[in-house]
Structures are given as structure tokens and as C-alpha cells.
Amino acid sequence: MTHIQVPFPEGFLWGASTAAHQIEGNNTNSDWWVKEHSTGTHIQEPSLDACDSYHRWTEDMDLLASLGFTDYRFSVEWARVEPVEGRFSRAELAHYRRMVEGAIARGLRPMVTLHHFTVPQWFEARGGWTADGATELFARYVAACAPVISEGVSHVCTINEPNMIAVMAGQAKRGDIGFPPAGLPTPDDETTEAVIAAHHAAVKEVRAIDAGIQVGWTIANQVYQARPGAEEVTAAYRHPREDVFIEAARGDDWIGVQSYTRTEIGPDGPIPTAGDVERTLTQWEYYPAAVGHALRHTAEVIGPEMPLIVTENGIATADDTRRVAYYTGALNEVASAIEDGLNVQGYLAWSALDNYEWGSFAPTFGLIAVDWETFERTARPSAEWLGSLGRTRQLPRTAG
């Protein structure tokens, strides 16, 4: 293995990501808490204490900073901030503000996500995103987050993976509650329109708080690859599941690219992954090149000028050497994209911690391992390695 100087632009974001519900624990006012404790779902176990990061966020940030990372993406939990419709918790807003200030004090630039899959129970009970007034309610919540993001936050994500939200809404209408498989079932059209409207309203609210904040949203890129003769089928499959959400980001300051694996498409639709390929703990194909394809497709859809940030990319594995190998392949793809002129402005790994992966703690994505009995954090060798790249600004590249 040889090394090259990383072609990172000035101010390149180098970090790791988390989501509130997946790490905080005891998010009892959210819709997912109800789903986790309901029968008849595909959810294997509830989140309960998760990583107890609501109380241990300082440990998490200390570790990330000590490893060499310069950026940390975390989310604000709407169900905590507005547990009852129209009633905002000053204490919770202060909690998330302390997290912002704590990140800055440790040399970590905070990227704040305002919605990462979960909503308050009262919002779900009203009918969720497609209910009358939902856009205005989300915009009001975003405006209420001003104390959290008004100072020291350069990047805000309004909604994480809206295409997954639309897909899960479609699943729910078919009686299937849980996290969708790679490749994605059919999204719900009404929810697609609703989350796009909510995003546009949220962008306006963020810019009203501070016009200097860089605001965007993140897409779950499935890396649809056409088998010979299936190009038109692939384009038709991809558009409602991905491209419509990329196109909705026109006018934003950046767009988040999130990829893990690929989905091959034949004349009859998605092709099951061959039985002899390497799989991750999520049963996805081990495919480090996914992020490169995702970056290039996103730029193709939205235009080469749009700043791209890899806001999630990683692997669920019990073998940390495979994690290093996966990140090596992925980062080579990022470097190649930059060398080819794509405007890539950051890379944030998923995930900073082993966490609750929407139904189970079994898929270990974390750069940092968590002991579920004691909550002790232990940086894996992959964390040491990946963090060091931020300090050395060198990237492993396989010779040849």
C-alpha cells in the first residue's frame, strides 16, 4: 500500500456521525419508542438506554477529538424539544446548546441535524408529514431551535434521508413497520411531496436564524447499477426513490451523500445479491466503491457546482480489519472524485459509536465500541487509523 497527499480542499470536514435516537437512550416521547414496544413489527429489540449518550456526550466528543477528527455530526431530537404540541422545553434546548458549545471547545465543528427519522408521538398521532399543517409545525420547530444553532454552527441538515421517510411511509400503508431493505420498496408519493415541502420551509427558517449557516439535507443513495439492457428500467426505478430528492436540493448550500452498498437492476427490477459475495452484518454486499458512484450520480443530477458532503458511509462488521479495508476503498473513491473536479467538501463516517440500528444493536457500525453493560467506550483500531488521516492529510491508496 502506498500513500498520497489527500486532495482535500481548505476547510474539508473530517468526522463521524450519529443520530439522537440511536445513541441517546430513553427517547420516550418519540414515535419510534412506540414502534419498538409494539407487537407485529420486524423490530427485534427496543432502544432502551441505547449508548446513554444523552448523559455521556462529553465522553463521545472527547474521544473523537483525541482521535484527530475535526467534525462531528449529531442530531437534535424533536420529541425532546417539543414533547407536547406547541410546548418547547427550555431545558432540552439548553442541553443541545451545551453540546454545540462542547464540540467547539474540543475543536470539533458541529454539524447539526434537525430531524433524523424520529418525530414526536403527538406529530405522528396527527397523521405525520401528510397531515394538514405538518409543514408549518416542522418549520415552527426549526425556528425554535435558534438557541441551538444560531452561533458556532456552520452546517445544518434539515431532514436526514427523506427518501427513506417516504419509503417507510409506503411500507406502513402496506402494514410493514420497520426499517426498509437496501434497494428500497416503493415510496409514498404524498409523503415525498410533504417532506420536500417541509425541507424547503425549514431552509427558510434556518436562513432567517443566520444567513451564514450552510443548510442542506442528506439522501440515502442506493447506487442503482443497470445490467446490460436495463438502463431505462433503472432510471425509472431510481427517480422516485432518489433523484426527486436530489433535485429538491436545488438552491441549498450543500447536499449530503450517504451510501453503503449497491443495488443492481435487471429488466425485471432489483437483482438479489449473489450468494457467494462478501456481506456485512446488515447482509448488504461489501462494496466500498458505492460512495464514489453515489457522489458522481448526485453531481450528475444536481450539477457540478453543488457542494457535496459525504455525511454517512461505513460498514457493519465484527472484523475491524474489514472496516479499515472498506474505508480505504471508499476514501480512494472520494479522492478520485475530488481529483476529477467534483466539489466534495467533507467526509463523515457512520458511525462514531456502535448504536441502535433501528431495531437491533447487532449491526456494529461503530468506530468506537460500546459495552452495553457499563457503557464504556473503546476506540477500535479503525478509529485510530481514520482519525489519524485527518491529522496527516494522507490517504492510503492501493498501489496500481
Structure commentary:
This protein has 400 residues and is an alpha/beta fold. It has one domain: Glycosidases (TIM Barrel). It has 14 helices and 15 strands. The strands form four sheets. The protein has an eight-stranded parallel β-barrel, surrounded by seven helices. A three-stranded mixed sheet has the order 7-9-10, covered by helices on one side. A two-stranded antiparallel sheet has the order 1-15. Strand 11, helix 13 (320-339) and strand 12 form a beta-alpha-beta unit. Helix 12 (290-302) runs parallel beside helix 13 (320-339). The mean pLDDT is 94.
What does the secondary structure layout of this molecule look like, with pairings?
Blueprint (H helix, E strand, L loop, with lengths): L1 E4 L7 E5 L2 H4 L7 H6 L16 H15 L3 E5 L2 H4 L8 H16 L3 E5 L7 H5 L8 H11 L1 H4 L5 E6 L1 H12 L15 H21 L4 E7 L3 E3 L4 H17 L6 E6 L3 E4 L2 E2 L19 H13 L5 E6 L6 H20 L4 E7 L17 E3 L6 E3 L1 H12 L1 E4 L3
Parallel strand pairs: 2-3, 2-12, 3-4, 4-5, 5-6, 6-8, 7-9, 8-11, 11-12
Antiparallel strand pairs: 1-15, 9-10, 13-14
